[in-house]
Write a structure and sequence with these properties.
By secondary structure, this protein is of the alpha+beta class. The protein has 17 helices and 70 strands. The radius of gyration is 34 Å and the shape is globular. The two termini are 60 Å apart.
Length: 1177
């Protein structure tokens, strides 16, 4: 998935947007900033970008660019094809600049041309000054500024500036002309056609051009310069290894008679100079015996009867091996309808088999197990068997991950389940289980390192698309590869980080060309040119772009290359072999990095806020559903789990978390058939998952309720967490009925949320529901008049913990006075109220850095419009606390209804915001603000298995503007701590809203938390606009200090609703004795408050059940687990894929224990028999 302005033909159809740029006019004569230098003219600005120029390539013939008349944005083309560019006709494409000189030229002139390398073949620049021809070569250096969008995609993206002098005699008073041509000199493997497809992707990309009058000095025609460049290229000649050395000779006169001699280790090598240019450079190649260490070298340049000698000390080029990993990125959609994408990848698998037979070394790595699954669904048994054989033979590699996910958004369990299909397939069909990869999406939750390590994987390979995610551009972490990525729990995976994917295509073209690789590969290898990089091998990630039919020519490139060059040696590989070999060569010189990558692309999730909230709820409730389904099989062994529904549930949620959201033109053509249908397919993943959760919960509770000694008209409330807790229950209660706590026999007071003809939607507080257990409530006709809740109208509301001053105008809170701390928590100097809705407009004018990261783009001017025009609707005192209702409105948001709940028995405040928003395609952002009265706050947020301090726990280059939160985010300054639990929206910002600053350091920020709930800042992939009804809920708490374990427990409570089942007369025809208690019961107990039961499921191999635990407080220790209804016969510590590792000690008849480390995920297999008596009917 990618976007941007293009001039590559092979990329143009894939990049989804064009950029609006301001034209920078060509400039006539003016004084220069340098003394004695006068600028004659300039085209563009030396800013490392071609944005000011016309997109694409010039017509043939190109009209002259006339200084003072022509405009860069219309008349100067950013790209000039090279003479061997097959797509441009394999011919020269000269461009001309015409200008006037009023006076007779004198002295010396200097020409400066800044260029960008955005094509694999590096063209030379031929210059003609009024008939005087010269040629110059590029010597590019890697660039990370991303002045052009290509910096996001090209691993060899680099820059060079060519500067040369020429005498006044080349010019004349009056009209003058300079002509520029991109020239591709002959090179080995210089094919122009591959199976009928033109190849040769070359040319020049212009940053800026400038002609200066630099003084009255003379032009030294006899001047000569030389540069000796040992290359990385080696050949075998007559059985001996020889290195190629380039000598660049610069001169100011035509070499009518000339030659170059190279003296190296006593041997002399001689090559002629050609007389085809009047000035400039010539590149002379020498093939010399390979040498192993630095040595002194002399070059003698013989030019028109004169000789100049140059001596340099040179070192040999490293003898590289390049492991080429054939691979194609998977977007589940984006480039086409999701179903068509499935067929393209299935067809690709079909096409791999004959290639592997024809080219024995060829192998291919899929980008997601989803591809293999789609193939199996759509091919014959014979074809399926062929795939199995290719996997066993190492010709096709199935990765562990189902697809490339946005890793900050899912729960830990969802991340683990995204590996299950790949694990099962490889275990069954003989594939290795060694690596995971993420392609394209720069989303690396710190927890993912722990997840992969706990799954038993050794390697993690990532290829980052830096479009709107400049992690590698800012942090250069790829230059540190390979490195250990260590998770919060200390688990490690060996990581290789690549600057983008489809590296074969960007380095060699596609179909690939040896000549292109010759030019691009040395630039690519600059990444690994540091002395600290010990290996002599590198990994080349991927061969072609996403979702495309397979190019068979990629299978030929290794043999074609190796016939010409001994080194660099190309070798087909898979990810595991490549990184394994590189790690061996690195030895002990492998660093370790800890930290979070920041959720760069996950801001796009907020473009689909309603379905994102649904998915967030699904992933929380799915854990309860799975626990219930497992408990139901223990309660009633006759009940067989519907494994198909559970598998489908996890797949739907994984696909919702997959990084592709919509069509490539979802922003530019949001109402097109493809945009609408792709978004419908995407959102259906969440809708189907929601239906499956309900189905599994309702069926499982029905099984359990049958064994509970309660009659019809009983409401069973189930707690999926492993500690006793109190929480709200919402359900429909018929008019004239009441709720009675079966344990206390007390009538339970409730709040009416909404009223209907026959019933009311009510909310009551279920108190002390047992751990992984249930509590029963009787539903009966009202025996007396139900008590009415008292109401008041004041703007100050209180609980035993807080005194809250409402602000009706803003629909939010003016003050929260913490009675225990005797201080106000809210920053009264903030322009925003606590919990206030903010609508942000702006960022429509392109280019800007919020929509697209680019060095030259400005930060947009954003306009924050807080909600207003509000009023206080009511204040109601209930049995559990006080509920205040307010209303307000904002731009494009005609209604904001806010309920603020203060609790009598818990130190927390809940905010429930129901908003109605109008849809717009103009750029917008929506936030809820939480300003805090603190000095020098330290921020934290919870991830799947740990806590991140964004000021110190981030990987180099990580995103620092928005963050993805699992359950809570907090700020503290040593005197006070405050936490916000964003239940429906995962993104937060700290100190300010997101502005497109892309900071390199977190720095000191203002004491404010912002929940980032909506935006449409992307220019591709995500939803273009959203409207309708939305709900955003928050919980707030504060204290002198807030420990992670307590916050995480509260976060899990708030996000994990109590599930309910109403026993009806249809459920129980007669009242039989039943084995489960009529009041309440617990099915599992954990003795440590910092250990969470993530899930409880049937084992994949049907051998017992699997329990997964998570340490949430950062505290190591032994954990003891009790399962009252199970006689435990054995317990095994497993890896996360359920492979037994260590037998655990049993405790009594019903328990076992294990040691757990801080933030660790622990998986346990338990086998036993149910102790619950059978139900006799």
């Amino acid at each position: 998935m990618k976007g941007g302005k293009v001039h590559n033909q092979w990329l143009a159809s894939l990049l989804a947007l064009g950029l609006c740029v301001s034209a920078r006019a060509s400039e006539a004569v003016r004084p220069s900033d340098e003394p004695n230098v006068e600028t004659v003219w300039r085209i563009g600005g030396f800013d490392g970008s071609s944005a000011e120029f016309h997109e694409g390539q010039p017509p043939a013939p190109a009209p002259a660019f006339v200084i003072g008349k022509s405009q860069p944005s219309k008349d100067w083309y950013a790209f000039q094809p090279g003479s061997a560019n097959g797509g441009a006709g394999s011919r020269s494409h000269p461009v001309r600049v015409q200008f006037e000189l009023r006076d007779q030229p004198v002295g010396l002139y200097e020409m400066k041309i800044a260029l960008l390398v955005e094509h694999p073949r590096i063209s030379a620049l031929q210059v003609d000054v009024n008939g005087h021809a010269g040629r110059f070569y590029q010597h590019p250096k890697l660039d990370y500024a991303m002045g052009d969008v290509y910096g996001a995609f090209f691993p060899e993206y680099s820059t060079d500036t060519i500067t040369f002098d020429f005498p006044a005699s080349f010019l004349r008073q009056g009209s003058n002309q300079l002509e520029f041509t991109a020239v591709d000199e002959p090179s080995p493997g210089d094919e122009t056609n591959s199976e009928g497809v033109p190849i040769g992707d070359s040319g020049l990309v212009y940053d800026a051009l400038e002609l200066d009058h630099v003084g009255t000095g003379g032009y030294e025609a006899s001047a000569v310069r030389s540069q000796i460049v040992p290359t990385i290229f080696y050949r075998m000649e007559d059985g001996k290894l020889r290195e190629l050395i380039d000598v660049f000779v610069g001169f100011h006169e035509k070499p009518e008679r000339g030659s170059v001699e190279l003296l190296l280790n006593g041997d002399v090598f001689r090559q002629p100079l050609t007389a085809d240019r009047a000035f400039g450079e010539q590149r002379v190649e020498f093939s010399v015996p390979a040498f192993e260490s630095s040595c002194e070298t002399t070059v003698s340049v013989h030019l028109n009867g004169r000789t100049r000698r140059f001596t340099e000390r040179i070192v040999p080029g490293k003898k590289w091996t390049v492991f080429v990993v054939p691979h194609e990125h998977l977007d589940v959609g984006y480039t086409d309808f999701q179903a068509k994408v499935a067929e393209v990848h299935s067809r690709g698998i079909d096409e791999i088999a004959p290639l592997a037979e024809k080219y024995p070394g060829f192998e291919f790595s899929l980008d997601g197990a989803w591809e293999a699954e789609q193939f199996l669904h759509s091919r014959s048994q014979a074809d399926r068997e062929k795939l199995y054989r290719m996997v066993q033979d190492g010709k096709i590699h199935i990765p562990s991950q189902y697809a490339s996910l946005l890793t900050g958004f899912p729960t830990a369990e969802t991340l683990l389940r995204s590996l299950y299909w790949g694990y099962a397939f490889n275990q069954k069909h003989g594939g290795p289980w060694e690596y995971a990869n993420i392609t394209d999406v720069p989303s690396y939750s710190w927890s993912y390192a722990s997840v992969l390590s706990e799954a038993g994987l050794k390697y993690f390979i990532a290829a980052s698309d830096n479009y709107r995610g400049p992690m590698l551009l800012l942090g250069h972490l790829h230059e540190k590869s390979p490195f250990w990525w260590e998770g919060p729990d200390g688990g490690k995976v060996l990581m290789w980080y690549s600057r983008h994917y489809h590296q074969m295509l960007t380095l060699f073209g596609m179909p690939p060309q040896v000549a292109a690789g010759h030019d691009a590969l040395p630039i690519f290898l600059q990444i690994y040119g540091s002395p600290s990089y010990k290996p002599h091998s590198v990994l080349l990630y991927g061969t072609q772009v996403e979702n495309t039919d397979l190019f068979p020519q990629q299978a030929e490139i290794v043999s074609a290359w190796n016939k010409i060059y001994t080194y660099p040696k190309l070798e087909f590989s898979d990810f595991s072999k490549a990184i394994g070999e590189i790690a061996k060569e690195a030895g002990d010189a492998i660093p370790t990095y800890r930290g979070d990558g920041g959720p760069y692309w996950e801001d796009g999730i907020a473009a689909d806020a309603a379905y994102a909230a649904l998915e967030r709820a699904n992933e929380a409730r799915a854990l309860s559903a799975e626990k219930l389904s497992t408990v139901s099989t223990l309660v009633n062994p006759k009940f067989l789990l519907d494994r198909g529904k559970l598998d489908d549930l996890w797949k739907e949620m994984v696909l919702m978390d997959e990084h592709t959201w919509g069509d490539s033109r979802s922003i530019t053509a949001p109402e097109s058939q493809e945009s609408v249908e792709q978004l419908a397919v995407k959102d259906a993943f969440a809708v189907r998952a929601h239906a499956l959760v309900n189905d599994i919960v309702e069926r499982s509770l029905g099984v359990i309720a049958d064994f509970v000694s309660d009659p019809p008209n009983t409401l069973l409330v189930f707690n999926g967490l492993n500690w006793t807790r109190s929480s709200f229950v919402d359900f429909d209660l018929d008019h004239g009925w009441e709720i009675v706590d079966q344990k206390t026999q007390e009538v339970v007071q409730y709040e009416t949320v909404s009223d209907f003809k026959l019933y009311s939607r009510v909310r009551f507080l279920a108190v002390d529901v047992p751990a992984v257990g249930y509590k029963a409530y009787e539903l009966r006709m009202v025996k007396g008049q139900p008590a009415e809740n008292a109401s008041s109208h004041g703007e100050v509301v209180e609980s035993p913990y807080y005194r809250v001053t409402l602000d009706p105008e803003s629909g939010a809170v003016r003050s929260i006075f913490d009675k225990e701390l005797a201080r106000d928590i809210v920053d009264s100097s903030s322009p925003y109220r606590f919990g206030q809705y903010l609508y942000v407009s702006g960022a429509d004018e392109l280019p800007n850095r919020l929509v697209q990261y680019r060095a030259i783009s400005p930060v947009p001017d954003l306009h924050i419009q807080p909600a207003g025009g509000g009023k206080l609707v009511s204040v109601v005192h209930t049995s559990f606390g006080t509920v205040a209702k307010l209303e307000s409105s904002d731009v494009n948001t005609p209604r904001i209804e806010t309920r603020i709940i203060l609790f009598d028995t818990q130190k927390k405040i809940e905010f429930i915001n129901q908003i109605r928003k109008e849809k717009t395609f103009s750029k917008e952002g929506v936030y809820f603000a939480f300003p805090l009265a603190m000095e020098h706050p330290r921020f934290e947020y919870e991830i799947q298995n740990g806590v991140v301090d964004p000021a110190k726990d981030m990987l180099p280059g990580a995103g620092l503007e928005w963050f993805s939160v699992q359950h809570w985010t907090a700020a503290q300054d040593g005197n006070v701590a405050a936490a916000i639990f964003p239940l429906d929206a995962s993104l937060v910002t700290f100190g300010d809203i997101a502005r497109g600053i892309w900071p390199r350091e977190f720095g000191q920020r203002k004491p404010a938390l912002f929940s980032y709930v909506m935006n449409n800042y992307w220019d591709t992939n995500y939803r273009a606009g959203q409207g309708g009804d939305f709900v955003f809920r928050y919980v707030f708490t504060s204290g002198r200090k807030l420990d992670a374990a307590s916050l995480s427990r509260l976060g899990w409570e708030e996000s994990t609703p109590l599930e309910t089942d109403r026993i009806t007369s249809q459920d129980k025809a007669i009242n039989l004795p039943r084995p489960l208690d009529s009041k309440q019961g617990s099915f599992l107990e954990v003795n440590r408050p910092n250990v969470l039961l993530l899930t409880w499921k049937e084992a994949e191999d049907d051998q017992g059940t699997i329990l997964r635990f998570l340490e949430i407080g950062g505290e190591a220790g032994p954990a003891e687990i009790t399962i009252p209804l199970l006689k435990v016969e054995s317990a095994w510590r497993c890896n996360a894929m359920e492979a037994n590792q260590l037998a655990l000690q049993l405790v009594g008849d019903h328990g076992f224990k294990f040691d757990i480390k801080p933030h660790q995920i622990v998986t346990v297999r338990v086998k036993g028999t149910s102790t619950l008596p059978a139900l006799v009917r």
